[in-house]
Amino acid sequence: MVLWGPVLGALLVAIVGCMWLLGMLRQRRPREPPLDKGSIPWLGHAMAFRKNMFEFLKHMRAKHGEIFTVQLGGQYFTFVMDPLSFGPILKDAQRKLDFVEYAEKLVLKVFGYRSVQGDYRMIHSASTKHLMGDGLEELNRAMLDSLSLAMLGSTGPSPDASCWHEDGLFRFCYNILFKAGYLSLFGYTKDKKQELLQAEELFVEFRKFDRLFPRFVYSLLGPREWLEVGRLQRLFHKALSVEHNLEKCGISNWITYMLQFLREQGVVPAMQDKFNFMMLWASQGNTGPTSFWALLFLLKHPEAMRAVREEATQVLGEARLEAGKSFDFNISALHQMPVLDSVMEETLRLGAAPTLLRVVNNDHILKMSNGQDYLLRSGDILALFPYLSVHMDPDIHPEPTTFKYDRFLTPSGSRKVDFYKAGKKIHHYTMPWGSGVSICPGRFLALSEMKLFVLLMVTHFDLELVDPDTPVPPVDPQRWGFGTTQPSHEVRFRYRLRPAE
Ligand code: HEM
Hints:
There is one protein chain. By secondary structure, the protein is an alpha+beta fold. It has two domains: about 25-115 and about 355-385, no CATH class; about 120-350 and about 435-495, CATH 1.10.630.10. The chain contains 17 helices and 13 strands. Strands 1-2-3-9-6-4 form a six-stranded mixed beta sheet. A three-stranded antiparallel beta sheet has the order 5-13-12. The chain has a two-stranded antiparallel ribbon with strand order 7-8. Helix 7 (about 135-150) runs parallel beside helix 17 and helix 8 packs antiparallel against helix 13. The radius of gyration is 25 Å and the shape is globular. The mean pLDDT is about 95. Bound molecules: protoporphyrin IX containing FE (HEM).
């Protein structure tokens, strides 16, 4: 009988431990947001969330209001939906919310990169130095040359370039932006023709990884897909290996600066290769898809296309792209294109759907804009999904699902920055780049790169949809929450190089 005591005790501890792990013991405490654990132990709402995050959050907001906590695969996420309450979260003056902890785990899993002390701060300071201001001017030049190379080839347009060519618009845009971005940031060998071919091959592999990415993050891959992801990771580590850097020229100062920091920290070359893969992903995963949406919206809205072409002709003047020659165009003119700026901002409003995540470090109080206080529990994750809360809010953006190319223009034609919710001026009226500590450090480069691409496409090419009546395709529901969305299917289009006038 005496022996049974410890056995029963251990059993009880194991049962309680299991129940705790499965989330069955968690109860809503006073002042905490509404808690929705879902009906399946531990998994909670994971299936519905992963199937279509946008629809799931819409449903939860209708059920619980502007703040709620849901269980997703054993982890509790508190979503704040009211954009007027974002301020204290993004400023985080009390330093109770942590971005780095979650990000470190994710990049280890996805890219194999193990973070070192200070690298997160270093990425942001490298970006301030080389992806903004004077550093950006230099990179923009390199980007323009790479875009010209990717669009016209290394020996110039083929004799049939002025005939119509048919392609998938998504593939076409992603492919060009990827090749141009990759070559400008990671450099090239002397043989540009060969390098362009390699960039093309790398793009094919990049897309394979890209397609698996959402389910990889959610740990939903089948055994074969796991093997494929492992192969792709190794392929990218090798393709971006720092060992080859000595053979390359034109590696951007941004990459050079960051790799030097890692070397000084004693990070081994194999880990630097993984860092490069992470940077390739961050820099190339969104610009292609965003440029696709931008061109598609222009093709579907002739009045917008006319306005952009008119502005572009004024800005470009006589400048014309010619293979192998530097394009005679003052890049600072990109700053004087309010119509194209508005088109890009509207495209990002409709196309960019990131999730912002912060780990709650200590229990603390969040004050909402309506004056109500909520207790956030240590260890939970605080999440924002601005696409639903901001981009699609009809109060902030009337007719939110409609593309309006001049939505971000004032009647006098300058940039519009005044937007309101419930009569109050709202600071975060779009958030394609995230915000606060984790805001995208490449946003200025991304914008100028995409603007250059659109500018060159609309001035140098005739473009048309194969079926002009084809509707804008719906978003692939798997991509909600992962930066720029992707279409659920391709859109066929035709293009031909315009003859020089
Ligand atoms: C349309 C293009 C782009 C979009 C929509 C975009 C969006 C974003 C977003 C939303 C984040 C923050 C993610 C978070 O909060 O966890 C982010 C992070 C990041 N982006 Fe971008 N991005 C774009 C292009 C670029 C480019 C061209 C570069 C570099 C050349 C870049 C470099 C980075 C880096 C390094 C991070 C991680 C920053 C950190 O760890 O704090 N991005 N991007």
